[in-house]
Amino acid sequence: MGRGKIEIKRIENTTNRQVTFCKRRNGLQKKAYELSVLCDAEVALIIFSTRGRLYEYASSSVKSTTDRYKKVSMGNSGGSLIDANAQEYRKETSKLQQKSSMIQNSIREYLGESFTNSFVPTKDLKEHIKDLKIKEGQLEKAIQKIRLKRAEVLHAEIEYMQKRELELQKDNIYLRSQIAENEQSAEHHNMNLNMSMSMNMNMGISSSYDGRSFMHVNLMDPNYSQYSQQQTALQLG
Fold it and tell me: In terms of domains, do 66 and 94 share one?
């Protein structure tokens, strides 16, 4: 079941009023924090309890936010709020342009484009030489860092290749053992096959020899019947 609507009026019970104050204060501070983080807004929150205790929250600082508010409110006394915001935007734009110019100058100095071969006074020449020495030192440090990074990458690559070489050697040994086992198995199978063929050939020769050594007798042959009677008469006589 949903909670019913709370009537917005002063809470008479002191304990309930203090509990509600703590809960609502924490919720308000949480919302102020979320607003400053999600929307990149400058937020300042000031709360005084009934006992005069101060509670505050600020995304940067309460003083800087209040000073900014005073400047805007004082400048807004003779103009509209839109003009005040436009003035703030112009200030921010000017700051960004200055930062962009500084970054571009730094890039030109690193590339050596800010120094020309034209004649310059002695004082400026000394300053340029000093700047060049500073930039030279910075470039040497940068080159040293690049070389160290390259050495680290090469070392890691060498370690990887060595590890890969060991793995390939293990795979090669395993494959050779498998090939040797297959060859032995095939050789053993061929030997068994040759022995079986030899035995079959010997058995065939033996059976053919027995067939040639003994005469086959047909009991249905009339000659065999006559021969048998003669043998019987001889035995009786």
Answer: no
Domain coverage including residue 106: 79-114
Report the domain count for the chain.
Answer: 3
Backbone φ, ψ for residue 45 (5° rounding):
-130, 125
Model pTM score: 0.34
Decide which of 88, 114, 140 is a domain's last residue. 114
The torsion region of residue 40 among left (phi > 0), alpha (psi -120 to 50) and beta comes to: left
Round the average pLDDT of the chain to a whole number and report it. 77
Q: Three-class SS of residue 218? A: coil
The candidate with the shortest Cα–Cα distance to 42, out of 52, 32, 51, 50, is 32
| Residues near 54 by beta carbon (within 8 Å), at least 6 away in sequence | 46, 47, 48
Question: 7-11, 51-55, 60-64, 212-216: which range is least confident on average?
Answer: 212-216
pLDDT, tens digit, 9 for 90 and up, residues 178-233: 898 888 888 888 888 888 887 777 776 655 545 444 444 454 555 555 555 555 55
